[in-house]
Structure formats: C-alpha cells, structure tokens
Design brief:
Blueprint (H helix, E strand, L loop, with lengths): L13 H15 L4 E2 H8 L7 H6 L3 E3 L4 E4 L1 H24 L4 H11 L5 H10 L25 E2 L7 E8 L4 H10 L6 E7 L6 E5 L2 E5 L1 H5 L1 E4 L10
Antiparallel strand pairs: 1-3, 2-3, 4-9, 5-6, 5-9, 6-7, 7-8
Helix pairs in contact: 1-4, 4-5, 4-6, 5-7
Amino acid sequence: MFRFPFQSGPPRDEMAEMILLTLVRAEENGAAFTRDDLARELDFATAPYLPSLVSQSLISADSAGALTLTAAGRDRARVLLRRHRLVERHLTDVLGFDLPRAHAEADKLEHRVSVETAQALAEQLGNPETCPHGNPIPHARAEVASFPTQSLAACASQSRATITRISSETPAALQHLATLGLLPNVEIEIENHAPFGGPVMVGVGRAHYALGRDLAARLLARAPKGFFDWKG
C-alpha cells in the first residue's frame, strides 16, 4: 500500500499556507478577496498571518483591503494546490474515501507531502488532470489547465447540463452538495431562476432542490454535446 512520506525540517505555518491556498483558489475562479472575505471563507482570524506573508513578498494588499498573490506567492500556492488535489485523488480513487472526507484529509496532508511524493502520486494515478471535484490539478511547471464551463447561475431555465466542477471547496459546501448528489459528472436540469437574485431550482433525477444563487455560481457545468442553451 502506498504511504505518504513526510518532509523533514522545521514545521510549516499551516494557517499561512491555508491563506495562500484560499487566494489561489479565488484567483482560479476569477474572484477577488478582501481581508474580510478571506476570514469568512476560512472561518478563522487571518489578520495575525497577513503581515508575515506581505513581508515575505507572497501577497500584497492595497488600501481598500484587496489581497493579491505575488508571482512568488502564486508559485508556492500552486505547489500546495497540486499536493492537495493529488492527495484527494489518491484518497478517492485508491482508498475509496468519499469527497468530503478526502478533502478534509487532504487539508492536513497538503502541508507535509514533499514535491517528490506529489510526483510519485501523479505517476501512480496516471497524471490526472482534475481533482475529484473537477478542479484542475496544477502541473509540475505550476501551469493550471482551463476547461470551458458555465456556472449553474448562468444556465438558461429549462436546460440540461452536466456538472464538471465544484469551485467552492469549503467543507460545509462539499458536504451539502454531496448530500444532494450534486457532484461532478452528474447530469441535472436547471428548472428555473427565481427573480430578484433568488435561488436556482434544479432537478437531479426525481429530486428537486433550491440552490442559493451564490452556491449555484460555484457549480460549473457543460451543456450536453450539441446543446448550447446557456442563459445569455
């Protein structure tokens, strides 16, 4: 059975690395985070860690509080993101973990798995392009693959689509979506969009759910082949 060898040396500041990971995920999804956004997403006080990350030239902050990864910070964050997503793949594909549990375990292991181990995992798994949630795995050169998708919030009513990515990787969101069966490769019907920013009604088999507009925006999908009825 494959075992994860850990890196030797001084312990890492895992909370600071979680900040880098959160910012690179936001960047990947075209979102901009302020200090307050970051604290809400991570659900812990991030202020004590930001000055050190700024002094190391890993992030920058403007006068309005918007946080941006520097080139060095982005490279470091993508290495962490690669480890996280490869570990998730191993836990789901080889050990049979469900998606929420795999994500929680990968959150612990991503800080300790070496670059060499990450490469061994990639080779063992056949160099997968995505994590179990459909998000792209950064390659060894820190390049992130892109996939044409559209959020459920942007799909037309009474259209069908297949979920390809869950861009929200918070534990609560992943557990909720797993409970509903809204996972990558699942075909759904976008039934209706409630007015005034209300929920998006979706159908999965015989089940029907109302998704908050923010959560629907974080579920990315592709239309069936030959069908492009996206909401314009």
